[in-house]
Amino acid sequence: MVLILFIRHGFAISNQQKILSHDNNVFPLTEEGEKQAKSVAKELKNLNISKIYTSPVLRAYQTARIIGNELGLIPIVDDRLRERYLGELNNKKFDPNDHWKLKMIKGQIEIKGLENWISMQKRMIEFVNSVKDDKDVIVAVSHYDPIRALIGYILDLDDISAFGISLHNASITTIEADESGKMKIYSIGSPVISQNLLNRLNRYFITINK
């Protein structure tokens, strides 16, 4: 049985400028995003983390590297954790008050090349299955839509039904997976790891820093 802490990357230039991008080597973290990554790393010190996996996208990799520096671990790049493939929306600005997802849900627009919900779920499930026998605690740095898709799979929600799931930058989603691949959620988009959650997970290799 493995405990996976899915971390959404820190605040990046793409978030600041409201630009959608799945490209690997653009839109680094802002100064705020770097601070967020350092802050979440302090939260993770309460757990015995053995490995850090990360999306290859720069904003996620930078987040993982900052966390790794704090924990003494080198991030492992895993393409399954990558950003949603955005098709014709890639590197385009969006208006959060007139969101493209709402337009898509309402059937007002069709987005060519957009990675679908099932595709994201499939690769995230494949990632979980690849680490489920670790019997350990690991970190996986990814992106909003892929993490949301995995939560949706566990809760049996489609893209529309899971629209309201909120995952802030550098937030923590805690998921346990057993040897059969069955998953259980302990937290969604949390800014910290609460003492209550630590107590619930005391069967894992937990070191509570007093």
From TrEMBL:
UniProt-annotated binding residues for substrate: 8-15, 59
Looking up InterPro entries in the UniProt record yields: dPGM_arch, His_Pase_superF_clade-1, His_PPase_superfam, PGM_Phosphatase
Q: Which Pfam families does the annotation name?
A: His_Phos_1
Catalytic machinery residues = 9, 83
Q: Which domain of life is it from?
A: Archaea
Provide the GO MF annotations for this entry.
phosphatase activity
Q: Which GO terms describe its cellular component?
A: cytoplasm
Q: What is this protein called?
A: Phosphoglycerate mutase
